Amino acid sequence: MIAGLVLGIGVVIILLSSLMPSSQKSAVRVIGLAGPMSGPFEAVGRSMRRGAQLAIEEANSADEVPDTILELAVVDDANVNGEVTAAEAAVESAEKLSGKNNILAVIGHYFSSATIAAGKVYAKREIPMITPSATHPRVTEENEWSFSIIQDDRHQATYLANYVVHGLSKRRIAVVYSDDLYGRSLRGYFVDTLKSKSLTPIASLSIDSNSFDAQSLDHQLDTLNKAEVIFLAMNYKSAAKVVRHLREKDVRRPRFIGGESLGGPHFIQEAGIHSDGVFATNPFLISLLGESARNFQRRFLHRYQANPDWVAAYSYEAARMIIASTVKVGTEAGEGVRIRNHLNRLVREYEAIDSIAGPIHFNAWGSGRRPISIGEVKNGAFVPARFQLTTIKYPELVKKRRSKEPVFLINGREMGRATTVFTGIHVNEIESFDPIDKKFIVNFLLWFRWDPSMNRKLNFEMTYGSVLSARIREKYFDRREGFNFIAYDVTAEMQGLFPLHAYPFDEQILQIRIKPKTKSRESLILVTDISDDSFFQRRLDFGPWEDRGHTQYTTQKSFIWSYRNPKYDKKLFELEHSQYNYQVKMRRKVDQYIIKLIPLLVLISIAYATFFLNFEYAASRFAVGIITILSAMSFHNTNKIAVGYLVKIDIFFIVTYILLFLVILETGIATFFHLRDQKVIANRLDIGMYVLYPVLFSIAAYKLLL
Predict the structure, then answer these.
(1) What was the pLDDT predicted at 401?
(2) Cβ-based neighbour number of residue 7 at 10 Å
(3) What is the CATH number of the domain that holds 644?
């Protein structure tokens, strides 16, 4: 019996191995990466390398580019303080990368000055370049081979100026900028936007980005203390020095706000406790992003044991964009031109492609465009600011409702202020789960925190479900933070789709989805209030299910607001509301199916043993075959899942019936030949079944586990 099983399993392995596609690749293609891998900005260089490397590893694992191995070639552009030196180093590193014959495209550089200088080398060699971080408009406007994932200074500074005026409602503004390419660019666009609103900064101070000299700041301490907001147009290291110095000089009244360079953990590490309360553009504020961002965070954390910052995320996106373009255009000669042409097509908003940080497209010059979010440092981490600026889809609705909500233009779009609602769920119990009826009942604690200046009250309702009971546990106004707080004990019945094609080893996602229940004029954004790895999270194992982890994220859901209302000229308005999603991944426990299948495996083994009985015991062989098949049928009937289609366990049972029937059939045929004194044929039939039986069983088991 053991020899037959081993032989059968070996045959199956050989057959499956012959059917597997060959893992050998015919070509190697390189994606270049250039950034500050050493020196004072080594941390962001490491983030660039990690993000790009993860994208390439995932693409190779999934065999996304057929017959091709992707490799990452990293060069250190040795950016140091001083634009001339940085530009020369960037050109030298660009020459190294562009000299590779099999290079597809380049990710980089980090600084705008380096990217502009290196871009000329790539353009000469017809190599596309995507920068995850360089923001000066010249990066893409002067080079048709250059693209940027990040928003440029013009777009970003215009947004920040409007956020200060309309989001924070501040008008006394001071500007501190570094006297380099980045600082002058960001400061110029910011001040121009203020002038368009008839505002002039009360101070505009320049600092040397190479050697920090606090004298210019000290001479203007009284003026800076009178400001409501200080705009910092500089990289994160210089900004940290300015914030630390002014806070130590007891400049407490103004709020600090800056560009994307400040919007990550590197600024917080440099500024320490003085970073608390600083606002900044945050390109990867994960509490405002969807499921793909959460999944990327989980994969990155698993790979590097560290959370991704926006530089890592945007480097990952740049690599993904290059890989996707390569899949589209192929890897034959001249792929660089075809990749550039493919990227040039993504210049309209309706052609935006999905990414981990939201849909992205390019403007006419190749600069990235996507929604901008503002973060605020709280307790050593960036969280969404209490107000965000959002696009108003139908401005005529705001005008006809005579709303007090201000409407203003940002880069040609009508925008408004939206209140951020920090939302949290703590699931206490899943009371029942019926995947056949597609519903489950869950008991949880739900809370909201928000600034009540625009929205005094807040209620909620379930999406794809209904509230069975809701009781207010606590309700108060936090005077220190200026937030309303309300918490509910909720029992809800939720609906969902629970595919069973992978039964019995299936995983099901139980989703709790919540939307704000407010007047239509109110604009709310639900964001996650706690991280997925909160130590308060409890396991929700019950019955045959085990808890495999929780995920929370925010999305936008479309709905029809006005159905041919004469007040609005009988138009249909498709609006969007914010939706908070909390997922609980459940997996069926394996032990119950092992227990369930052990009797079936015993029956299969007993039936296999009949081939080792002499033909003198033919009656016993028939009896064993008939008893085992009847036992299996009875066992199957009492445990069958009531679904409308075959699942894998049903297939396994059917194969079992076939195996047991073959035992009976073979016993009858072999006995017939034995009684006719044709013992050689009878013995050969038994020997054939020694091999065929375990082979069929192994195939059935493989299909069940696949």
Answers:
(1) 55
(2) 14
(3) 1.20.58.390
